[in-house]
């Protein structure tokens, strides 16, 4: 007879203590591979594996930061009585807490005072204590405290879940954790900024004040992070975008960038580069409409799962009742809040459309337009079409989060047997592109099925997840699991790069989608002369070009490689008498396919060099008497003087640098140098 497995509930801290594995610097525990704090009861058996997580372990960082958010909220309420608290999570680079303060706005001086109070609270070495209340007890407690926002959070906790509170000293907060054992672990903190934030991210709800901060286990680690932040501020793409004359914004087109000539060159150069990659790798580029009937989005599942993030378009015939009764009175459509949703639901297809937020459904229509054979697969369909998504005003940020953008987007329709080879080919493409752009530190994440709201069966998800994981391993690479982070229609691989100052960014994605082919009833005729369902792979290398440029501007600090730069050289003259030669040289460079600018101003040479340097071209060419006589230019790169180059040598050098590193250099051939203009 099998022995009965004994299951018990015990805190991770007690479990470590019982097993004599609780050193003083333990912040949390790893219980069967899952990170939990030392306060929360977990279900364990005799076979449960538990390990301590120390303060300097990266897995401890979110716990330290969330605990610091609590201590910050405590400090705020001590200094500013009557302030209400809302939520205070840890985030990628720190933490924040949202406050409803009615007696004024937080200032830089306030942040300094709050920091001092935080350090006083931390020095008290107060233990964090977890407690559980009934729903009625919790409501009474929070109401007595005047924490109306917490009461609303309480109402959202599902029935049956523990209603937990954490307390340090006299301060208590409704919270599910996790937290450090004691405030003594909270020694290194810096409050960084204050911003406005709507409660629940809803413009119709109260505007709160969000205090951002960051925390680390040691002051040394914090100081290194602050140096990185200082460097990040210097590289901020919003500042460089203005300084380098790349892009602008206007209030009449919220969160929608205008690319100026220099920025438009960068944008188009990236597209041209990707088109070159596609031509060599068997992709066919397509162009699809901007606006689709809602029937498309209903079929794809986006109307149900993504409509709140879409821009909707109504024709005038949708605004007035028709004899068929399809229309909606204008005053019904344009009523605010939930009435809009109710009104839209009554508008029939043909009267309401959605602006394209993604390309995949339209590619399904193109696949279905004619009969496909297995001989037509794989079919690789690329699209640089403009997309529009309704990003809330509180989350838009420069180029990194906008409402209109384009992606290096493509979809591969293939058989399940072809998937490993297609995924491997995508790895080759992605590696080459990132290498050309100088981004070689790449980490791969496998985002798996969400807990709810997903399309398809659990079995189809698990099969797709396995194929993705096996394909990564087949390329000799490793990956980490991002549990529950897949899109609603399928799992995906995420490619995260580390930039020049150590920050991690997600760029490329590869998603397996067995669901859209099902919803659009796509099929191909197999070798057995029967219909089969294709697999659909969604893939992007750079992703949103706008977001990529925000990253790349900061990664390069605006010093773009010559093959991408808006101009490869700026010519500056010692005096006006050298200008005719400079113009002639510029003409010859342009005839050789190079991008060149000439400073024709009356400024002195030092000012011209300074002004040219502000735009950060790869090279500056200085022209004086010697250069005119010898037919060439003295080359500068940044502050380095590279010496004189004759025109033929200058052209050869710039042409060699004018192609992406992975491409074969331009064929060497005699360069015809036009004579100097008289």
Can you walk me through this structure?
With 678 residues, the protein is an alpha+beta fold. Helices cover 34% and strands 25% of the residues. Strands 16, 20, 21, 22, 23, 24, 25, 26 and 29 form a nine-stranded mixed sheet that branches. Helix 7 crosses helix 17 and helix 14 crosses helix 15. The longest helix has 21 residues. The termini are far apart. The N terminus and C terminus are likely disordered.
What structural category characterises the helix and strand content?
A: alpha+beta
Q: First CA to last CA: what distance? A: 105 Å
CA-based gyration radius:
30 Å
Question: In terms of per-residue confidence, which ranges show pLDDT below 50 for 5 or more consecutive residues?
Answer: 1-5, 329-337, 666-678
The percent of residues in helical segments reads 25-40%
The largest sheet is: 9 strands, mixed
Q: Which features does this protein show?
A:
globular, single chain, 9-stranded mixed beta sheet, alpha+beta, 5-stranded antiparallel beta sheet, disordered N terminus
């Amino acid at each position: 007879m099998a022995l009965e497995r004994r299951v018990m509930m015990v805190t991770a801290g007690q479990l470590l203590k019982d097993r004599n594995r609780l050193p003083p610097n333990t912040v949390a525990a790893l219980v069967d591979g899952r990170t939990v704090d030392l306060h929360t009861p977990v279900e364990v058996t005799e076979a449960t594996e538990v390990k301590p997580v120390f303060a300097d372990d990266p897995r401890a960082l979110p716990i330290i930061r969330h605990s610091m958010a609590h201590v910050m909220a405590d400090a705020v309420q001590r200094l500013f009585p009557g302030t209400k608290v809302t939520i205070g999570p840890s985030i990628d680079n720190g933490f924040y807490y949202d406050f409803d303060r009615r007696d004024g706005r937080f200032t830089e001086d306030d942040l300094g005072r709050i920091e001092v109070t935080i350090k006083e609270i931390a020095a008290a070495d107060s233990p964090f204590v977890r407690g559980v209340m009934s729903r009625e007890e919790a409501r009474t407690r929070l109401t007595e405290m005047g924490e109306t926002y917490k009461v609303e959070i309480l109402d959202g906790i599902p029935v049956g879940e523990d209603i937990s509170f954490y307390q340090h000293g006299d301060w208590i907060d409704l919270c599910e954790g996790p937290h450090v054992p004691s405030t003594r672990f909270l020694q290194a903190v810096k409050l960084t900024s204050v911003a406005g934030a709507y409660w629940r991210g809803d413009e119709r709800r109260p505007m709160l004040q969000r205090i951002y901060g960051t925390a680390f286990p040691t002051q040394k680690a914090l100081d290194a992070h602050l140096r990185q932040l200082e460097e990040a501020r210097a590289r901020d793409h919003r500042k460089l975008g203005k300084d380098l004359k790349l892009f602008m914004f206007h209030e009449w087109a919220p969160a929608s960038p205008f690319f100026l000539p220099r920025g438009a060159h960068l944008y188009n150069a990236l597209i041209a580069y990707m088109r070159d990659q596609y031509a060599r790798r068997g992709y066919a580029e397509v162009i699809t409409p901007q606006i689709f009937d809602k029937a498309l989005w209903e079929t794809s599942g986006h109307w149900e799962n993504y409509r709140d993030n879409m821009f909707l378009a109504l024709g005038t015939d949708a605004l007035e009742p028709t004899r068929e009764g399809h229309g909606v009175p204008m005053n019904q459509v344009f009523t605010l809040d939930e009435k809009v949703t109710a009104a839209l639901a009554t508008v029939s297809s043909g009267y309401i459309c959605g602006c394209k937020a993604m390309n995949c459904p339209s590619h399904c229509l193109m696949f279905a337009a004619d009969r496909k054979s297995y001989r037509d697969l794989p079919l690789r369909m690329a699209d640089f079409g403009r997309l529009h998504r309704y990003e809330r005003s509180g989350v838009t940020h420069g180029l990194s989060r906008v409402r209109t953008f384009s992606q290096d987007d493509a979809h591969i329709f293939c058989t399940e047997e072809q998937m490993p080879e297609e995924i491997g080919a995508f790895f080759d493409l992605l590696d080459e592109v990132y290498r050309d752009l100088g981004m070689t530190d790449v980490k791969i994440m496998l985002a798996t099925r969400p807990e709810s709201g997903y399309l398809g069966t659990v079995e189809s998800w698990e099969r797709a997840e396995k194929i993705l994981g096996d394909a990564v391993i087949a390329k000799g690479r490793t990956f980490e699991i991002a549990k529950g982070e897949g899109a609603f229609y399928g799992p995906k691989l995420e490619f995260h790069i580390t930039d020049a100052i150590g920050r991690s960014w997600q760029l490329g994605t590869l998603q397996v989608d067995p669901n859209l082919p099902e919803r659009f009833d796509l099929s191909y005729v197999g070798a057995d002369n029967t219909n089969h369902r294709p697999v659909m792979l969604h893939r992007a290398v750079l992703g949103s070009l706008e977001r990529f440029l925000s990253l790349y501007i900061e990664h390069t600090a605006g010093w773009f490689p010559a093959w991408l730069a808006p101009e490869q050289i700026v010519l500056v003259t010692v005096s006006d008498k050298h200008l005719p030669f400079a113009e002639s040289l510029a003409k010859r460079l342009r005839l050789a396919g190079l991008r060149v600018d000439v400073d024709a101003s009356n400024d002195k040479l030092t000012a011209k060099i300074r002004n040219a340097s502000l735009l950060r071209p790869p090279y500056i060419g200085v022209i004086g008497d010697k250069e005119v006589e010898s037919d060439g230019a003295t080359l500068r790169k940044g502050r380095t003087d590279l010496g004189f180059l004759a025109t033929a040598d200058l052209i050869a050098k710039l042409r060699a640098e004018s192609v992406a590193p992975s491409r074969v250099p331009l064929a060497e051939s005699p360069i015809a140098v036009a004579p100097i203009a008289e």
